[in-house]
Amino acid sequence: MTLSPSASQRIDPGRLIAFTSTEGRAIVALFIVANAAFAWGTVGFVARPWQTAFAIAIVGAGGVLIVAKRSYPYPWTDTALILGIVVVANAMVFDSLHVSGDLGRATWNLGANTWLLFFLTIRGRPWAAWLGMVFMIAQSATWAAITDRGALAGVIMCSNHVGILLVGTLFAILLRRTAQRIEALRERALTAAAETAAADAGIEIRRARVDELSALALPLLERIGEGGPFTDAERASFARAEARLRDGVRGRALALPEVVEATEAARARGVSVTILDDRGEVIEDGDALARMVEVIVRTLGAAFAGAVTVRLQPPGRDSALTLLHVHGDEVTRIALDEHGEVLAPRP
Q: Quick one: pLDDT band at residue 215, thresholds 50, 70, 90?
């Protein structure tokens, strides 16, 4: 017996570092404050501070979005939004930067956007994160080329950030493998628990059947052990007990309290009742089973002579249950489908 967690129950590797926890939100707040501090400290390097402020705002929104509760892997709509934030924020900052001099922390946008891409890899979108890095390198190289710094200088500006994203990718792989191991351990634990429960249930069922057998057969066996002669009532009681035991073996799936009671009453009236289970599996539809039981009880209750055979048919047949009442030359057959509905008699 194997139990597999559903998609909604599978472990999100991002949960292993508590993205959506209070601590995760605190880190996002620190991320936003740090970006604002770097931008404020280098405001003298930009020509249009409002563009820097706008970049701070959308990068901060990206930080809030990247730690929001989302499915794993991260939805493509949100992924595209993060990539859009990276591209727009870089464009706004580069467009406002002075063309000469040492930039220092004025390129804070590269580090901030790298961290967005870092967390995007952890949320299951590494290829999208590397696509974002390619955009960022292209933007940096283009800006450096336009400002006569040289495209290579722009690429070098992103070298450290490439290393950070590489570490993030490796970290994401490690998290995913850890999540898979945890999931495998959980699945084995669930399987072991299910097997234990099934074994316990089997023991309880066997114990209940032993108790049932003792209650039914032990007094009669003791009476037989005392020796005869036996009255006609005792012989009839022995026959009914034998038939009931036979029902428990050959028709266990139908050995329900209502059926057992109706069967006992019919046999007490002199009706020969045979219960057969050729299905070999449980009827899982409770409503269908209830309708079948109702028809069985009604048929047995209407029988005062003759023989009644109740049979669960093997799987795959048109009829799931048949009832055959033979009384002299009169034969009545009822067939029910898998839903417990009466089938029309064949022509």
A: low
